[in-house]
Amino acid sequence: xxxxxxxxxxxxxxxxxxxxxxxxxxxxxxxxxxxxxxxxxxxxxxxxxxxxxxxxxxxxxxxxxxxxxxxxxxxxxxxxxxxxxxxxxxxxxxxxxxxxxxxxxxxxxxxxxxxxxxxxxxxxxxxxxxxxxxxxxxxxxxxxxxxxxxxxxxxxxxxxxxxxxxxxxxxxxxxxxxxxxxxxxxxx
Length: 188
Fold this sequence. Notes:
- It is a single chain.
- The protein is mainly alpha-helical.
- It has one domain.
- The two termini are 26 Å apart.
- 20% of the residues are buried.
């Protein structure tokens, strides 16, 4: 949208005439600079919102992991077939739409990450950290919808994943301009 406005402004400024050409060139450069800065802030804002979505969805995925672990452990302690107990849990989660919601959230975040994959140079580090966070989020999603391995390894993996998500989220947030964080927090 701002590129279109910039183009319209440049066209309008170029029709003013040769006598004001130097002044018009200055205005065009100023407009282009404002547009670049606005695009950069829009990018940082979108990245931050995506980071918030990843954080929230990670927590939802990890809640499913915690429930999986709980059912798995109970089945073992009660001498039941844990595969059957987990199948019941996942059937119930599917019937309630939990798995669909987790998967739909993942698809939306995938789309947003794809839209963010060409960051302005100014925000390359922000994107790189968001990409790391996204990788850990993807693992959390896989743990939530497709548990595998032994209970001990599953629990260890979930704990490591949660720690990494927390660490990366803090590092990511430290790279976001404070005015964007304040702006988003006010809108909450």
